[in-house]
Design a protein that fits this description.
alpha+beta; 4 helices; 36% helix; three-stranded antiparallel β-sheet
Length: 194
Amino acid sequence: MHKFLSKNKRKIELAFWLLLFSLIFIFGIKMGGGEQQIYVESSILSSNEKLIAGSNILVNTNIILLGQKSSDIVDVIIEYSILNEQGNPLYEILIETKGILLRTDILKEITLPSNIEPGIYTLNVKASYNGASKTTSNTFEVVKIDSYLLSGKEQIISIIFLIIFIFIIFGFYYSYRKFKHLEKLISIPKFKGF
């Protein structure tokens, strides 16, 4: 069952987005009377939950335009901002404009400043077009480099295990060489004289 889900994960995600888009589009037309709306979802793609100063954040943003005619491409303004725990902007907001037909997925790489302090931060992604706007938020943690690496006690334990492993390998190697030497001695024909 797990292999089936992992192999078909992308197909399931695509079916989910198509179903979600269809429902939002149908209800948007019936309820909104054709007014412009926008749906935005963002997520941080990272191999670690904790980041260090100067590292990169990969942000995936899904944008769906509702109440938009299918033949019109519109400019959507996307703003990326990182806020500290007090809600203050970390640095200048990154702004970009994308031309979108109905739906798009955008990957954006943002580099954290090298002097960022450890703590919890919020990444806001705001998308706007024709007076409609929507903001999504994601949190992430920045840690010190030394807490990102192994602690001193963990390093000592790792070194001890490494030394024990090396001794075991050398022991096997020595036994193998000794065995080969004995095998060689046994197979040498003895001189019996003339």
